[in-house]
């Protein structure tokens, strides 16, 4: 979240920058600053009250020792009044701090200076494109290919659970497992430490990475235990560092995790959500970094290059987009999306988002670090990226590699699948 210091000292900058995200912050910022002024006045009054109470309390014992009983009793009466007043002031202060916190968390992260203006994904900026779109002799969409080769059963998943929960079968299941293993191996080769986190998180974890309260309606909630199924491994992995103080020597912190992901809001009905295009449950390998503030944008570039290398290794045509303000997430300062081309559907499919949150998540997480030789702590920077999300990767692989004699498997996956073609 944004800091009070930033809001006090650069309120106009905050308001102007958030306009890039199409967010009108003027009224919220004004309310926060009004509450903060009242809070600071009450805090000053409370501090004076407690100081006076402490001073008088010390005098009471001395007065009794000196035999000044009447003065001591008057002092005791005064302390009673001060205690009542300090309690009332404390309650007022706590109420104001709660009100202010509820407003502060409504403010999104400030977008980076390079974020283009815009209201929707149509305004995103293409920064790079690569790979060749295949010229297919047949163009069956992946849901027809999945049925033809008995790879994925969407109807069976609908029977067991509901729409958006497919059942992977045979070579379809092995392809899924192969991609997960390949992505994890590539990440560990590139210095990421593999972790297996829980698939459910508490409210504090959801708040720490910004899913709560912003995306509460998109998450599956386990009401009895007040836990949430994770929408992405970003949530549990980043929360490993909640309430942690790192040393500057600990950087860079690089973590990778494979998890299923669960999202209630999987999209609208129609052709754009058919098959694997949008799911309520899907597999994803996620990379997370915690970096020194001076290095976070360099790390973002490194992560973008890494994800690009994965897509290239699979032989998929792709493009990289810099998200405009209107398409940027609540918590992100700068995000690059990766899309691969689906040759049968003749459309681009998003397969990865790589984001720098700067200190926004760290402030919520209380994730800090110390420079060598210093006692004062500073907020670290957090980043994450999909490396990669599997459903649309599988869709593009099946469609783009289809032939009349079967579906060819990219060479980098051969040792993981145990087969080179699906037929």
Structural class of the secondary elements? Answer: alpha+beta
Strand tally is 19
Shape: elongated
Question: Which range best describes the helical content: under 10%, 10-25%, 25-40%, 40-55%, 55-70% or over 70%?
Answer: 40-55%
Please list the strands of the largest sheet in the order they lie side by side: 1-11-12-13-16-10-9-4
Mean pLDDT: 95
Distance between the termini: 51 Å
User: Describe the biggest sheet?
Assistant: 8 strands, mixed
- Strand residue content: 15-25%
Cα-based radius of gyration, to the nearest Å: 27 Å
Low-confidence stretches: none
Helices, by number, come to 13
Protein architecture, described:
41% of the residues lie in helices and 21% in strands. The mean pLDDT is 95. The protein is elongated, with a radius of gyration of 27 Å. The longest helix has 40 residues, at 26-65. Strand 14 and strand 15 form a beta hairpin. The protein is α+β, with helices and mostly antiparallel strands and 423 residues long.
Q: What is the topology?
A:
Elements: H1 4-9, H2 11-18, H3 26-65, H4 69-104, E1 125-130, H5 142-148, E2 152-153, H6 154-160, E3 167-168, H7 170-189, E4 193-194, E5 200-201, H8 203-208, E6 221-222, E7 227-229, H9 234-238, E8 245-247, E9 253-262, E10 281-291, H10 296-313, E11 318-322, E12 334-342, E13 347-356, H11 360-365, E14 368-370, E15 377-379, E16 381-389, H12 390-400, E17 402-403, E18 406-408, H13 414-417, E19 421-422
Parallel strand pairs: 4-9, 8-14
Antiparallel strand pairs: 1-11, 2-3, 5-7, 6-7, 9-10, 10-16, 11-12, 12-13, 13-16, 14-15, 17-18, 18-19
